[in-house]
Amino acid sequence: MEIGVQNGVLTNHDRDTRVNGINGNAIVKREPSPEKGKGASGISTLNGTYHGAMDVDAPQGQASSKALLSDDRSKLDDLPEEIVHITQNFMPLGLLLTRLAQKSHNAIQDKILEMAKMPLPQVMNGNSDTHSNPLDDTSEENLAKKTALLHFVQDLHAKWVKALVITEWSRKADLVSKLIDLKAHIDVQMFKYDGALDQIVDVKRNLLYARLPNPDLKTALQVLSTGDVPWMPELNYIEPPPLTPQEQLKWIDNLNTLLSIRLSLDDHDKIPFHFRDYSVSSGRVTFKVKGEFEVDLTIADEDFEKQFWFIDFRFLFTPAPKELSEGLRAFLEAKVNEALANEGLDGCYRFLHEFVLTHKINEFSRQAREMSRDRWTDSVRVERLNRAISIQYWASRYLQNGPKSWVILGVNSGRKTTNLVDAKATSSLSLRWFRDNKEVKDIDILLDSDVVSAEHLLKRVIARHVGHILRTIYDKLQSKPRFMKREAAMSLHLDKDEPMLSALEVQLTYCEKITAKIDPITGFFAMSPHSRVVYEGEHRLNYRSKDPAEEGLISIEGIRCVSTMEELNRRGKSMGWIGSPRPIKPEEVRTIVNSRDGVQSLWFKREGWDPRWYLMLSLSLSGDQWWLVELNHSQPNAQIKAYMPLPFSSTDPNLSDKFFTNLTTFATGVLSQLTDIGVLRSRRIAHVIRQVPNSQLSPQVKIPAVYVKLSEVLRASSGKRQWQKASWAADDVRIVFGGIQRFVPEDSKQRQSTASHPDKRLTVFAEARVLVSDKKKFSLLKGNVDHDVTYNPRSGQFSLRLRAEVGQSIVDSLANRLQAIDRLVDFLEAMSKHGRRLQCQSVTLRKVVFSYGDPAPEDSQTGIIATGSASRYQVVLDLARGEEISIKLQKGNPHLRVLDLLRRLVNSPIGFESLPFWLSLTLPMLRGLNLVEESWQNVQLNNQGSFTIFHRALEWLTLRFNFPSPQGKPPRQVWFDVRLKSRNEELWWFLWRSDKDKDAKDEFSSVLQPIWNDRGEHWRGLKSSAAAKTADGIEELLIKVSEALKPLTELDGSEVETKLESKGGGDVVVID
């Protein structure tokens, strides 16, 4: 680029203001010293700088010169106002001496290095005289070193002598300053005198042209009188006749023909490349250069070797004068004709082309200066650089030491580095762009050749600068995972001509977006929509950032974080989510969120949660993430105990009531699931987490299901190390989260208090599903097995609805329900083994109702069981009391006498499933006891005897028969034991005497021996005892024994003894 003598030199836009009037920005004015007039100090100043070190001779003659100095100062201080005080180009003496000392030090170092490189004296024959004096060394090398050192010292000495002289002058700095003022004033006056003399001479010289010659009265009189002057010479010129229009057209056609022939034949190769666009008409040729000018030329001779002549010139761009002024036209005519005469058309083009380029630069400069005084005040600075112009924009954008940006518009010669001649090569306007103190290469800013507009040019440059800033911010945001994964929307629109149309749009939240633009005049960011948060971020980016392209990313992310925080706190508070200060240090947050980008964390608490649990939202350009964090508050500083990322979508959520409802459900469900998993791990229960569809929750809430082993849950609840796998169901139990609701107490009083004072606690619901292996076993179950347990006969699946407060595990409730079902299954299996003897009427986990007794007869044709003809007894098992089962029997049930034994049985480890067995087994026996007891009621009322039953166990009881006895003698009693035993792999009831006289030949053995020796259909005698079948024989046997002993109640003991003695005591006595 050609910019005059400053070709390739940068402007002073990137240089700071310096002292001593450099760049015309600041002038250091010399102020009088505060010690002015104090000669006793011996220290003089120059421009306010003390130089006492140089004033070695100051104390000498101080007293003698004190009066003289005071008189001179008084006279000099009274100088008239016409004398101007000179302060320009003053330099502090201390700065001068410092720079001279630094220069001397550097010069000495350079000289030492230079002398070290000089060759050493040569040693003859490899020997050196170690005893020779170096002062006597007269070798050429030594002399050269000494000469160089001497010249260097002389030059340095001369400089320091000058400094000494200046220092001596500085002791009288005030007087010297006044002398300089007087000398400058005298020089100005002398210049004015010389100028006045020159003006007088010029006036005298110009008067020669103003003086009129003496009038020629004789010639005037002759001409006025006769009209002819005989003494005037006659040239005999013949005036040509005027040309007619036809002749004028002919001449013009001839000129057109000559011009066409000359340009087509003779000058075809001489026409410059940029003059190829021409037209011939009206006797002239018009050369047109697009975007620059057009010039009209003609010829004055038929000889084609003669030159072209200038006729007219017009600019082909705007703004430009439509008509040339007389002075400009004359200047152009002379210069163009001279160029045509010397260099032909090529010289004409080069001159006019360079003239137009200079005119365009001047026009750009004029418009730029108008801009700096108009709308672009304080934002644009213009500087002329000979033929080039520098325009700095955004001058007030940064601080004093901030980066600067400017453009230099100049002329590029178009020459190439190679020696090849290119006919198309020509100079042109070129633009150099310096952005933030760095030149931008390969810019695509085209200069409009038809329209010269400094504002449009500057807007195009600023549009590129704005595009660079916004593009840098966009690329940095796009490289972050948040935008790379399209978790947030972002768009960039750039306009190359209008910077205000360029905008960067970034999504802040679900419903809020921010649009960042840059004001082309000031360079400040303008963000919308306007709010307090956006204004703070905009202000920070405009006034506190050194590089908005680099720091814009941080500012926009900060605006997003604050906007998200405010919106979450504002909307979440009404939904039970309360913002909390960060309870841990930022370093500990880094352990949770592994991100290289800056992280902002928002902490929330939920009403109804344990204070140890927090919900944290980490905001960063790596992506937003929700976290469930458990803290340990036992120490002075809270510590992280556990944390888990919540698989929420990282996209900005719609912070509606539905979102916070789903958030509460999801976070509470995960918290509850973590609590359950912790309990499962502590009890060493294997579990697996799988994602399954859950129709009970919203589609946005996806909480995985937990699978546990049925056998391990039952093992852990029973406390045994091993547990046999349940055969009635699959071993996998699926636990699915079902939702949450407000805590509702079961007690009515608590419900009333909760109605007046709402309880903020939350209850978690979960559904556990158990698939049975054989549906036939559960044919008796239909619908609701309990208020929270249902059974689906079609799918063969138990559904357990579990409930627990937030923070409490449902594992215990699950174990209890599974134990109850397992116990119920054992009972149903036991009942199925007894056929029609036991019939279930109602089966739930809280209560089981069934009947037992004689099997009902069945019609062989219809298969209908006639229940009315059989005697049956109803049993109610109350399972709602937890671990203890209560058994209830209806009135008249034979088993009422063994109710305690049945209760003990049913609460034993294997008693629940064995209850049907014992009820069926003991029913005939107990029914027989009832009959015996009823037959002995009249005997007992007549005090003739009694019958007592002692139940040791369900399978073992003792019977006692009491009979009347004489006074003074022991009571007459007989004891029987009835016990269940196995005989030939079959259960039989055995009955025998168990009293101490069982082997004696007494009255009882007399009446019982026939029974021991007899046998029936379902029972048989065993010589000293009897055995009966469990179904029907025991009842018959008990009645036979009772009937055999009953006659003994009619006799007292003395009568029986008399009869026994009369018969010999050994025979059996039959009593009628």
From TrEMBL:
**Record-level Gene Ontology MF annotations:** transcription coregulator activity
**Mainly resides where?**
nucleus
Domain Mediator complex subunit MED14 N-terminal: residue ranges = 90-301
Q: Which UniProt keywords apply?
A: Activator, Nucleus, Transcription, Transcription regulation
Gene Ontology cellular component? core mediator complex; mediator complex
Q: What biological process terms from GO does the record include?
A: regulation of transcription by RNA polymerase II
Keyword Nucleus tagged:
yes
Instruction: Please give the InterPro entries that the UniProt record associates with this protein.
Output: Med14_N (IPR055122), Mediator_Med14 (IPR013947)
Q: Decide whether keyword Ion transport is in the record.
A: no
Subcellular location per UniProt equals: Nucleus
Q: What does this protein do?
A: Component of the Mediator complex, a coactivator involved in the regulated transcription of nearly all RNA polymerase II-dependent genes. Mediator functions as a bridge to convey information from gene-specific regulatory proteins to the basal RNA polymerase II transcription machinery. Mediator is recruited to promoters by direct interactions with regulatory proteins and serves as a scaffold for the assembly of a functional preinitiation complex with RNA polymerase II and the general transcription factors.
| The protein's assembly and partners | Component of the Mediator complex.
Sequence similarity? Belongs to the Mediator complex subunit 14 family.
Its name, as the record gives it, is Mediator of RNA polymerase II transcription subunit 14
Species name for this entry? Phaeoacremonium minimum (strain UCR-PA7) (Esca disease fungus)
